[in-house]
Design a protein that fits this description.
The protein is α+β, with helices and mostly antiparallel strands. It has three domains: 35 residues; 213 residues, no CATH class; 184 residues, no CATH class. It contains 13 helices and nine strands. The strands form two sheets. It has a seven-stranded antiparallel β-sheet with strand order 6-5-4-3-2-1-9, sandwiched between helices. Strands 7-8 form a two-stranded antiparallel sheet. A hairpin with an 8-residue loop joins strand 5 and strand 6. Helix 6 runs antiparallel to helix 7, helix 7 crosses helix 10 and helix 12 crosses helix 13. The chain is globular.
Length: 460
């Protein structure tokens, strides 16, 4: 039984048994609310825990089971190198995080950071002398799915799906209320434990640079800008972290021994991409879940009220529109923090990343970096090409494409007018940005091209 702090005045005026009953009822209400939030995706129509999944890890496990793929054991890193290879996750994406903010936190310290690797769909965590390789992958329907792979030599290595432990952190307001991913900036103590009293920040592309990367090692150049990485916090100071010693590091040699890792780097550009894509995944999942929930609720009410099966309520439209609006704003980098110095990584990640994905006839790609004043040269998320984006229900896709095309079709006059108001989240896009993004998508995204053509036919 937990002890609960109670105001002294309340204790003096309420009999003990009644007070205990009130406290128990309060706890019950909190548990009920937590359960209700969980049921948003555990029950119908999502069935997060029980519906079949087809994310890259699930597909790899199916190949392993059929003998169509195999993993190779490495004496130094266990299954890690082979898993990266099988899932097409580049070693250049390596990031080192030394805050105790993940599953194997007891094995993580500033001298033994956790390594994280990722591509567009999959995230892989590795800890020195860890019991498991931690894996998360994006399912087109269900969002983030979490797995562990025992670091034990066996003839049949098996990815085991998590059944709820990971969702304690990975299904909250920090992940847009769905099973998802997040990047946090903390104020780490000397053993890696965050000073929670100083606060933590869930970071994405809108986060001011000076608030990013606390608890992470960071290699790369960022000029006059400063961040919270590469440093231990002193909670006795007014400013707990001095950013100067950890700024613009080409090497981590003075901070941590990197020979146990696959790479000697923790790349700044990779970290910035990770921040963006983690919340982009969450918003795609949120839009998908909202559309599926709304359709399900309509079906229940239509049956109960004997309405036509295809009747759609106003509340359904509002829920879908709200999720689509937030998704498109993030997709087009609304509120992106504007860089005041140029940025460069040191691992080769930027080159590898840019070489992937489709290019238009002018050689342009949404994976082209800017790194002078913003992350990408053409501010539209590369995850518009993802399987999860295309798998959103049609009502959600219609709402998203409608808003996206409207934003990209804004004229120069309307942009100038709207930029002085708070009603246009796309005022940051220049006419050149809009034209380039529209042309790139028209050549490389057939669904966008079809919808754009449909809009053009309807416009007089």
């Amino acid at each position: 039984m937990h002890d609960f702090p109670v105001d002294c005045g309340l204790r003096s005026t309420i009999p003990g048994r009644l007070l205990r009953l009130i406290l128990l009822l309060g706890v019950a209400v909190l548990h009920q609310r937590a359960a209700s939030a969980q049921l948003e995706f555990e029950g119908a129509p999502i069935h997060y825990a029980t519906a079949p999944v087809h994310d890259p890890v699930a597909r790899l496990q199916e190949k392993l089971d059929r003998g169509e793929a195999s993993l190779t054991w490495d004496e130094k890193h266990g299954w890690l190198p082979s898993v990266l290879s099988q899932l097409n996750v580049p070693q250049s994406s390596q990031l080192l995080v030394f805050s105790k903010t993940s599953l194997q936190l007891q094995r993580i310290t500033p001298s033994r950071p956790r390594a994280l690797y990722f591509n567009d769909e999959t995230y892989i965590g590795w800890v020195q002398r860890g019991d498991v390789v931690e894996v998360s992958s994006v399912d087109p329907q269900q969002g983030a799915i979490f797995y562990t792979l025992k670091q034990q030599l066996t003839d049949s290595p098996t990815f085991v799906r998590d059944r709820g432990q990971c969702l304690i952190c990975h299904a909250s307001s920090r992940t847009k209320g769905v099973p998802g991913h997040l990047v946090r900036s903390v104020y780490p103590s000397r053993d890696g434990q965050p000073h929670f009293g100083l606060g933590t920040i869930t970071t994405d592309h809108s986060t001011p640079f000076e608030n990013r990367f606390g608890g992470w090692y960071v290699t790369g150049k960022h000029g006059e800008m400063r961040h919270l990485g590469n440093a231990i916090a002193d909670d006795n100071r007014k400013d707990p972290i001095d950013p100067e010693p950890g700024a613009n590091l080409k090497s981590l040699g003075q901070l941590v021994r990197t020979t146990p890792y696959l790479q000697p780097t923790s790349d700044l550009v990779a970290l910035m991409v990770l921040e963006h894509q983690s919340q982009m995944h969450n918003l795609i999942t949120r839009a998908s879940f909202e559309a599926r929930r709304a359709k399900y609720h309509d079906a229940v009410m239509n049956a109960a009220l004997k309405r036509p099966d295809d009747f759609s309520s106003e509340s359904t439209g509002r829920r879908i529109d709200s999720a689509a609006e937030k998704l498109v704003e993030y997709l087009l980098f609304a509120d992106e923090f504007r860089l005041t110095s140029s940025v460069a990584g040191v691992s080769g990640f930027a080159d590898e990343f840019s070489q992937q994905g489709p290019r238009d006839s002018k050689g342009r790609s949404l994976r082209d970096f800017d790194l002078q004043t913003r992350l990408f040269r053409y501010p539209c998320s590369f995850l518009i090409y993802s399987e999860a984006f295309d798998a959103m229900p049609e009502p959600a896709l219609d709402a998203v494409y409608s808003r996206l095309i409207a934003a990209l079709n804004q004229t120069a006059d309307s942009q100038v007018t709207d930029s002085v108001s708070e009603n246009n989240p796309y005022a940051h896009l220049t006419a050149g940005d809009r034209t380039a993004i529209r042309e790139i998508l028209a050549e490389t995204k057939p669904a966008f091209r079809d919808r754009l053509a449909s809009v053009s036919k309807q416009t007089p």
